Amino acid sequence: MAEVAVLGVLAVAAASLDALLGGRRWDAPLREAARLLTTARRATVRSDVPLMRTGVVVLPVAAAVAAAVVPVGGGVAAGVPVSVVWFNAMEVVAWAAVWLVGWGTNSAFALVGGYRFLAQGLAYELPHMFALVTAALAAHSLDFREIAAAQDGLWFGVWMPVGFAVYLVSALAMTFWGPFGHPVGDDVAGGAVLELSGADRLVFFAGRYGLLAVAAAASVPLFLGGGAGPVLPGWAWSVVKAAVVLALLVWARRRLPVLRMERFMTAAWTVLIPAVLLQMLVVGIVVV
């Protein structure tokens, strides 16, 4: 499980970098975590507490289970031959987690946030899935390890730039991060997480950062050649590449405006899907 631990460290690093970019101290997330651990949980009237807390716990669990199939160098916690499918399935579990939190708290704004994330999922999931399939098609495999090995000499991100770009956009959307933070937007007082407090809030946001780190790490075997690189061992190259992608995703939160769902839906169906399908067609022709 060393690979999962490495991704956990990356998630903590992402939280610290996000704090720095936001004008706070690097240890602000750690101090906030300590504060939340000592804060009493609150509950709204007639809230479904078991349902809400199920969603809170499921988000970091989905991130950890997804991390188990992402290789770091040559090692992987769970060598699943269809790891790409498994990784994609955990994103759908994250949909359910956010929606359960929004529904279970019995709060109007929280429910709006939960439904926003479902709408966002409908917009990003098809482009995301096609980006994953494009890399799998080129490698003739759904295994992250074989996809990484197929990039010997030329990264997929170099000759599949559209697929890589669409994957990065969908990584932001699946973690409701940056321009896709509408499900937890300020216009609805925090959306899905409005009523979360204490340890519940801490666990939920830990899961979100974990999912962000896993999405960044998955881009390495998919598009950046896995652990291939000179001088350093494979695991070190995987960590370096994942850290660079993660830094880019964290930076996007502070530099890009939040998009409304209907605008993202239009862009996804009229721009992202045709573009990534065209990329897949090119890859299919080259492979054949």
Outline:
This is NADH-quinone oxidoreductase subunit H. The protein is mostly helical.
What does the model show?
- 70% of the residues lie in helices and 0% in strands.
- The protein has helices at 2-21, 28-37, 49-67, 83-104, 108-139, 144-149, 156-159, 161-174, 198-223, 234-255, 261-287.
- Helix 3 runs antiparallel to helix 4 (83-104), helix 5 (108-139) packs antiparallel against helix 8 and helix 8 packs antiparallel against helix 9.
- The longest helix has 32 residues, at 108-139.
- It starts with a helix and ends with a helix.
**Rg computed from alpha carbons, rounded to a whole number of angstroms:** 19 Å
H and E string: HHHHHHHHHHH
Query: Low-confidence spans: pLDDT under 50, at least 5 residues?
Result: none
Taken as a percent bin, the fraction of beta residues is under 5%
Shape: globular
> In angstroms, what separates the terminal alpha carbons?
38 Å
The percentage helix is over 70%
Arithmetic mean pLDDT: 89
Structural class: mainly alpha
Q: Number of helical runs?
A: 11
* Strand element count: 0
Number of domains: 1
Report on the biggest sheet: none
Write the layout of secondary structure elements.
Elements: H1 2-21, H2 28-37, H3 49-67, H4 83-104, H5 108-139, H6 144-149, H7 156-159, H8 161-174, H9 198-223, H10 234-255, H11 261-287
List descriptors.
288 residues; NADH_UbQ_OxRdtase_su1/FPO; mainly alpha; membrane; transmembrane; transmembrane helix; NADH-quinone oxidoreductase subunit H
